[in-house]
Write a structure and sequence with these properties.
4 domains, Elongation Factor Tu (Ef-tu), domain 3, about 30% strand, Rossmann fold, alpha+beta, about 575 residues
Length: about 575
């Protein structure tokens, strides 16, 4: 018995992965995603009848007979933060579509996807999307690429060919032979590139045709299902009215039956008896579908909703095994050793991460580790008062942060965070969490820098210009040119090693200012000296910097100021 090949849809954010699937299944999943970016792995079955309907005469022309019972698509997130989820997706995938915007070419997440496909030796093709965005393209909705392309103006054809060969070159640089799908002689040796559009539907018939052909010719042996123990992965845990907590799972091997025991992996694996199996209709996306039909049995590969007790203890991303009661203990032990731990160096001074699924938690840990962010705790679930107490004990303000991805933060907890002036970074889009974190840390560092700058005397050298004495004393008001550094109000001035006064005010073109920088010519009032006695026109004065000021300026990495301060002190 053959199962559906599992097809992972991968690629860079905004390159059109979900839109491409939407066009095939006629749904609007992309519009329901936060920020238009897929945040969790979803599953959709495209049955054989639909494939034949979309492909039309193409299958007959190329003598392809579709024996597989359809295609099961995994729509995986595309942002850099989702490395772990994509890795999990590609490891269970039989085939993959690497989506690349034909106008953009390779991007960072394209590179990562390619790396994982190579690592897991997953056969794949390139969907060169957004051909409708090529300048001058005339759309022919729902048509084959062949039919649309032959009707395009010559300059458009030339542009498409140039973009395709840029992709061929980029793949070649990474060790892959590739060619436009109709020019491929041996699909075992070359990657097929299929130009297409998720907006107009052009090229989708060829995309499904090539996928079906690859599955038929190269995967038949791998697609045979032996009835028995079912293996899979939890996509999401959800509360459903009338059913309680349910698990959306992807079953990639064996079978699952109503009445089986579901063994769920984790640090402490547990088992629960399956009360109901609920299946979305074909062409519907399991994440957003609300209508399901009850079934007694399903055979891999399939996306299915499971209703059972205690699923609120399960974590999305965990492995599962469906088995008979007598085998429960054996498989609990197997999954205990099989669960991949979230690896991070737990530290006392670090941020706290809370996420809704194991996959997104792993993704957050991965990207924060790459950015050198220390982590105190990473956990699945809502932000709690315990989290607030723990992060309050962190002394470093740049680490006094709770990240909350797509999880609940109660009003009481939120008020406590505000009262204690802690930082909560909350979003349902991971890259926004990362952006806000970077901005927050930058703001703290700027604030700390300004506080330190207020504690030091900045180095400055000024020249008292000839004929620019406006008042001799009480205070002296003179015209000066700043020869170097930055002169600020309140700075003590020194002449030949002796303190002679303090800057009380600075005027630039009649306006009071707080500071003057190198090259500025300003009027300065100096409390203390008298022009003609302690100071005179033509003198050079410097600010009263100390060795302690030099140390702080070095800490702030202000190279030019450090050099000038050392010159003033005679250290260089």
């Amino acid at each position: 018995m053959l199962r559906q090949p599992i097809v992972a849809v991968m690629g860079h954010v905004d390159h059109g992965k979900t839109s491409l699937l939407d066009k095939i299944r006629g749904s609007i999943v992309a519009k329901k995603e936060a920020g238009g970016i897929t945040q969790h792995v979803g599953a959709t079955v495209i049955p054989t009848e639909k494939i034949k309907c979309i492909c039309g005469d193409l299958l007959n022309q190329l003598n392809i007979n579709v024996d597989v019972p359809g295609l099961l698509f995994l729509d995986s997130p595309g942002h850099a933060a989702f490395t772990t989820i994509r890795k999990r997706g590609s490891s269970i995938a039989d085939l993959a579509i690497l989506v690349v915007d034909i106008n953009d070419g390779f991007k960072p997440q394209t590179e990562e996807s390619l790396k994982f496909l190579k690592e897991f030796k997953t056969p794949f093709l390139i969907a060169a999307t957004k051909i409708d965005m090529v300048s001058g393209w005339v759309p022919y909705k729902e048509k084959c690429f062949f039919e649309s392309f032959k009707n395009q103006p010559d300059h458009v054809k030339k542009s498409v060919e140039e973009k395709l060969y840029k992709l061929v070159g980029q793949l070649s640089e990474r060790g892959f032979n590739s060619e436009r799908f109709d020019r491929v002689d041996d699909f075992k040796k070359s990657i097929a590139i299929v130009p297409c559009s998720g907006v107009t539907g052009e090229g989708i018939p060829e995309l499904l045709m090539i996928l079906s052909g690859l599955a038929q010719n190269f995967l038949k042996d791998k697609l045979e299902v032996t009835p028995g123990v079912g293996k899979g992965s939890i996509l999401e845990i959800k509360d459903v009215t009338g059913l309680g907590t349910t698990a959306d799972i992807i079953l990639y091997d064996g079978e699952i039956n109503k009445g089986d025991y579901l063994v769920v992996g984790g640090s402490e694996p547990f088992a629960t008896k399956i009360k109901a199996l609920l299946k979305p209709e074909a062409m519907k996306e399991i994440r957003v579908e609300k209508k399901f039909k009850s079934v007694d049995k399903e055979i891999a590969a399939v996306g299915i909703k499971v209703s059972a007790l205690d699923l609120d203890k399960a974590v999305a991303g965990s492995p599962i095994i469906a088995c008979k009661e007598k085998d429960v203990e054996k498989y609990k032990e197997e999954l205990k050793h099989d669960v991949e731990a979230i690896e991070f160096d737990k530290v006392g001074e670090g941020v706290i991460l809370k996420a809704d699924t194991l996959g997104t938690l792993e993704a957050l840990v991965h990207i924060l580790k790459e950015k050198g962010v220390e982590i105190k705790k990473a956990d699945v679930g809502a932000v709690t008062r315990k989290d607030v107490v723990e992060i309050e004990n962190v002394k470093d303000k740049t680490k006094q942060i709770i990240f909350a991805f797509n999880v609940n933060v109660s009003e009481d907890v939120m008020n406590e965070i505000k009262d204690k002036k802690l930082k909560l970074i909350k979003s349902d889009i991971i890259y926004r969490l990362i952006e806000e974190h970077e901005k927050h840390v930058e703001d703290i560092k700027k604030e700390e820098k300004m506080k330190k700058l207020d504690m030091v005397t900045l180095p400055a050298r000024i020249y008292l210009m000839q004929g620019m004495t406006f008042r001799a004393s009480g205070p002296a008001i003179v015209g000066v040119e700043v020869l170097g550094g930055k002169l600020k109000v309140g700075a003590a001035l020194v002449k030949e090693g002796k303190k002679i006064g303090t800057v009380k005010g600075i005027q630039s073109e009649g306006t009071e200012v707080d500071e003057a920088k190198t090259g500025d010519r300003v009027a300065v009032s100096i409390e203390g000296p008298t022009v003609g006695r302690q100071i005179k026109e033509g003198d050079e004065l410097v600010t009263n910097v100390t060795k302690k000021d030099v140390v702080i300026l070095e800490e702030l990495k202000l190279g030019a100021e450090v050099n000038l301060a050392k010159q003033i002190l005679g250290l260089i």
